[in-house]
Amino acid sequence: MHAHRGRDVWTWACAVAIAAELRRDLSLRPRARLLLSGGTTPGPVYRALAKAPLDWSRVDIGLVDERWLLPDDPDSNARMVRSHLLHDHAAAARFEPLTQAGRRIEDAVAAANAHAQLGASAAVLGMGEDGHTASLFPGRDLARALASRQAYVAVDADDAAGAQRWPRRISLTPIGLQRVQTRLLLIQGERKREVFEAALRSGDLMRYPVLAALEAGHGSPLHVHWCE
């Protein structure tokens, strides 16, 4: 748990931590891969990360999850990443949206699983107040997603309030998380910290799917970056 004093400190600390993972991998291999989440919380981090002096032309950017929307839809995670990260130095990165016009969801999942064979340097995760991460929501479809042997699955979260207007989604699974070297969970506010600590006390993966991020590391730590 990395607790930061204030949101500005949190923003830059998260950006520096992500950049460090990319820099390490770029020093060891030809390309690095970064998986990102959407939502409002990580936006400032992505804007700060875009200023990092990395060889972004050797960085592939993928998504942790996506609503079943076109990649240019204002409510898509792809649009959020393009708006906040793919400028400044990071404009040179190669972006891999999970959806494309005319592509069926089954084909989108197959393409995501093909990319996932490469593994990833880091994944940036978020958490909802219902304890979900990625698009793994508490509900009747969760057990199937958790048991999948694929890195990505199609998700039907029509019984999950946290899915809001977008129950149909594509999500990284625990198997997919196991292929990530470093997992970072970015959360803000007392309520989110309370939910995460309740998840740790409970140990109930079906109630708190965020625990999948903790268990996927096989001993490697989950880095939780929090501020009030």
Architecture overview:
- With about 230 residues, the chain is an alpha/beta fold.
- The protein has one domain: Rossmann fold (3-Layer(aba) Sandwich).
- It has helices at about 5-30, 45-50, 75-85, 105-115, 140-145, 175-180, 190-200, 210-215, and strands spanning about 1-5, 30-35, 60-65, 65, 95, 120-125, 150-155, 170, 180-190, 220-225.
- β2, α2 (about 45-50) and β3 form a beta-alpha-beta unit.
- The radius of gyration is 16 Å and the shape is globular.
- The model has no long low-confidence stretch (mean pLDDT about 95).
Characterize this entry briefly.
By secondary structure, the chain is an alpha/beta fold. It has helices at residues 7-28, 43-49, 77-84, 105-116, 142-147, 174-178, 190-202, 211-215, and strands at residues 2-3, 32-36, 59-63, 65-67, 94-95, 120-125, 152-156, 168-172, 180-188, 222-227.
